[in-house]
Amino acid sequence: MKIPSNIITLLVGIVITLVSLWYGQNHGLLPVAASEDAQQVDNIFNFMMTIATGLFLLIEGVIVYSVIKFRRRKGDTSDGPPIEGNVPLEILWTAIPTVIVFILALYTFEAYNNMGGLDPVISKDTAPQQIAMGDQQHRIALGIGKSATEDNPAIMVDVKGIQYAWIFTYPETGIITGELHAPINRPVQLNIDAGDVIHAFWVPQLRLKQDAIPGREAFLSFTANREGDYPIICAELCGAYHGGMKSVLHVDSAEAYAEWEQANKPVQEANMGETALVDPKNMSDPEFLSPYAEEMGMNHNMVAELANHNSDHAF
Ligand SMILES: [Cu+2]
């Protein structure tokens, strides 16, 4: 019994489609998605992966099939048939990629717009540069952002890229740190700037990347929805130690974030005298030594004993 070739074509088409649809969702190439918007980027990537898998299987399949089916047989020295172009075929293979590219362009545009890429909503009160330069600058603001709302305002963080580190300043609390902390489910707005050369702020798990340009502020907003530690990577060759320009984004629970904030707030001037300044002259030897002794694995009594032994020793 001979199966008609159009039925075989149909079956092959169905199999390729099913395999492509499955692989488009199960390629495992992306790191975890740690924000709401990251899913939109993943949807585009998965869609592209589905199309790419289908095309790969179709084209490679035809090549492998042809290599076997139309191979030169033993003793065959004849020429192949003289085929010169095929207009319908060329129209087809121009039209299909054109349609695919158009669909991808529209889909990408839609996601970019959803994420606030076309009109970043910038909180003006913390972007003095923007106000100084007026409306024109606002219209061409760099970045992505829209996640803040009236009842869930964004946490502001000034991000400065320098050779070869990221410095994060929280203007509301005065915290300055080398590692970014963000509470889960709260919008965060990064005001990104560079101190020397062009850097790029990149967190793969947020699917966000933004150039940091000296003298020109850029913005990124995100709302992390997954606790964890994620790498911050400089994605613009910025000098000899560019490869070492890394930091960490800690997405904390609300409680852990509050704790971190409390522990890292600069000491207020009012209680500065008691907490920050201790004059070692007013301390006894054991008092002075105990923090060092603890590091060495000694307890308080051992220190006191030592101090007694050497009581006549001028310290
Ligand atoms: Cu850099």
TrEMBL record:
PROSITE patterns with a match to the protein in the record: COX2 (PS00078), COX2_CUA (PS50857), COX2_TM (PS50999)
What does the record note about the cofactor?
Binds a copper A center.
Tell me the keywords, alphabetical order: Copper, Electron transport, Membrane, Metal-binding, Oxidoreductase, Respiratory chain, Translocase, Transmembrane, Transmembrane helix, Transport
| Gene Ontology biological-process annotations | ATP synthesis coupled electron transport
User: What CDD domains does its record include?
Assistant: CuRO_HCO_II_like_5 (cd13919)
The Cytochrome oxidase subunit II transmembrane region profile domain, residue ranges: 21-119
Protein name (Swiss-Prot/TrEMBL): Cytochrome c oxidase subunit 2
